[in-house]
Specification:
The chain has 174 residues and is an alpha+beta fold. It contains 2 helices and 9 strands.
Length: 174
């Protein structure tokens, strides 16, 4: 009877359970798979955050260059800069004086003598603003122009700094 019982129990134990080695192997494989999944999820979230910052900077740069283009659209005279500088001051054909410049980490626009209004949003910083005024050449080949260079910086949700430079040249037709 005991021989039969031992053979019967021995077979059922081998068929119904896992050995300790099999369990450790399965746990190791599961840990490797979960590490790969978590790494992929983290990478996707970082990429999303950086893409969001990139899109925000693109929108800000387009908006700021559009505002500066608007200021330069109806220009009669340019008071500042003489050469280059971080302040643009113009007189328009309808008699308004407009100033655009850098104040701290923000670009402002002012219809003089009114107080300035900040143009950029609070999520970005303007680390450089430069206006380069080129006078009309004596031979008439090179028209009067204003070159604008802006560097916009933002910080992603994970602390990564992202900067982009924007440039444009506006030729003035008076």
């Amino acid at each position: 009877f005991w021989k039969w019982f031992y053979k019967c129990c021995n077979r059922t134990m081998k068929k119904n359970g896992f050995t300790l080695i099999e369990t450790v192997i399965y746990l190791g494989l599961f840990a490797i798979i979960m590490t790969g999944v978590l790494t992929a999820v983290y990478s996707v979230s970082q990429t999303g955050s950086r893409n969001q910052a990139r899109a925000m900077i693109q929108e800000e740069g387009t908006y700021l260059l559009g505002k500066i283009d608007w200021v330069l659209s109806g220009v009669k005279t340019i008071n500042l800069p003489i050469g280059s500088g971080d302040v643009l001051q113009v007189n328009t054909f309808n008699g308004n004086a407009i100033e655009v410049g850098l104040s701290g980490l923000n670009i402002y626009l002012s219809r003089l003598p009114n107080s300035p209004e900040i143009l950029n949003n609070t999520n970005v910083e303007i680390s450089e603003l430069e206006f380069i005024h080129t006078e009309v050449s004596g031979d008439g080949i090179n028209p009067e122009s204003v070159e604008v260079n802006i560097i916009i910086t933002t910080r992603t949700q994970d602390g990564f700094l992202f900067s982009q430079k924007f440039s444009t040249v506006k030729y003035l037709h008076k």
